[in-house]
Amino acid sequence: MNSAGTRLSQGDLALAKIAAKWPAVREEMTKIVEKWKEHHFSFTLDWLLRCVNAVIHGESVFTHLHETPRDVFENGLRRTEKHVDKILNQISSKLGLDHTRVLFAKYAIPVLVRHIELHKQGKMHGAVEWNLMLYWFLQAGIHGRFSGTTESKIRHDLRLVDGTKNGLEKLIAEIGTTWGRPQILPSDFDSWSIGARTYPVLYWLTRMEGAKDFCYGNELKANMIGSGSELQVHHIFPKAKLYKKKYARAQVNALGNFCFLTAECNQKIGAAAPSMASEFVDERKNSKHIGSGDGYFHWVKEKYPEALESQWIPMDEKLWKIENYPDFLDARRQLLADATNKYLSKLNPKHATMGSVYESPIKEERSEESHSHIASVDEGNELKNLQEWMSSNGLSPGNFAYEMESSSGESNQIIIDLSWPEGLPAGQGEPVALLLNESAETYQAVSQSGYKCFIDTQSFKEYVNAKMLGE
Question: What is the DSSP track for 232-300?
Fold first, then answer.
């Protein structure tokens, strides 16, 4: 603990030891983080420290930094900044992922900076090598590679990279064996809310695969400028009309019902339905929305014939009717999966021939020993049901029986029933823990480690509903 009684993370402790040798280290690291923030990428000092650790030592555990000399750390920090700059430029320009909200695999970046660090000095990375790096980065994001016990997974992947194309292929070879699966399926888009893991995929496809604006027919490429050009999430079928037809919240906010439009176009369409007579007059601006009595899809199809298909809208007009909304979602999920696989194949030509069989680790049977911290069968079922509820809402199911690292660096002292140590959503929110039937001492220790703690599933669900699902 520090002098104020606040429990320090392992990153805090490592940084304190470095600061004893280089007092200005926090200031220098903060300048780097602030620079990235100006470009819409928000990172913590802990995250930057992980990258530096990967560059200098090829490690994820912060204790490796404790005895690092000042000059070694300072030089490593400068190299790390340059490596991360390169990666962010590639992710922005080639994937269109240009801000934190859609940067869904930021803990893959320490692995990639290690690869760049080990790359032959003075030799530029070719397009093929960058494509493989981006391919692995995307797969890590889609499958939530780093949404669980981040540190151990980073450590594992750091062992595979060696600065060569062969090292990257070793990383990719593990997709479909120890984690994930290469092929993207329609079921990957069977989720809802902007917290869904494949939400950034929709953004990336929109930016890079020629998606067109419904109002003007222009491509929604990255780096658009001008008032009203920023992208906003648009509900293809308006929420109010879906609720009126008694569709459930998860269906109303399904990822398949989302598309991205410019802010100006989103406002123009308003609450118009794809194929339903709507009121198009905007009282506030005394102007008309786009569309007609047949719905706005017909207007877009006539005005800009390719715009609907460019946004992966099924062209069977029967599916545009609100009573066929579930079939519309199924058809659009298939189109999105096909588009994703097509783009991944551009980055890695081997993708098209890689298999798709995969058993989710969430469904693995655990022995009774692994449940030893669970007070009863009912408690175990309650946790399992909560994990399924989180997954059905497109959110990480959390880490079961997570062993929290103690202040001494040892584990196996405090086990959290369900935890999200990298934040909820991963990498964006604060760390969260669910503690059922635990002692006050356990609650205090977990809370002091920076977790937002809950002691029952109901209050936890209310928190998720309010903070992440927006309902």
Answer: EEEESS-HHHHHHTT--HHHHTBGGGEEEEEHHHHHHHTT-BTTB----EETTTTEEPS--TT-HHHHH
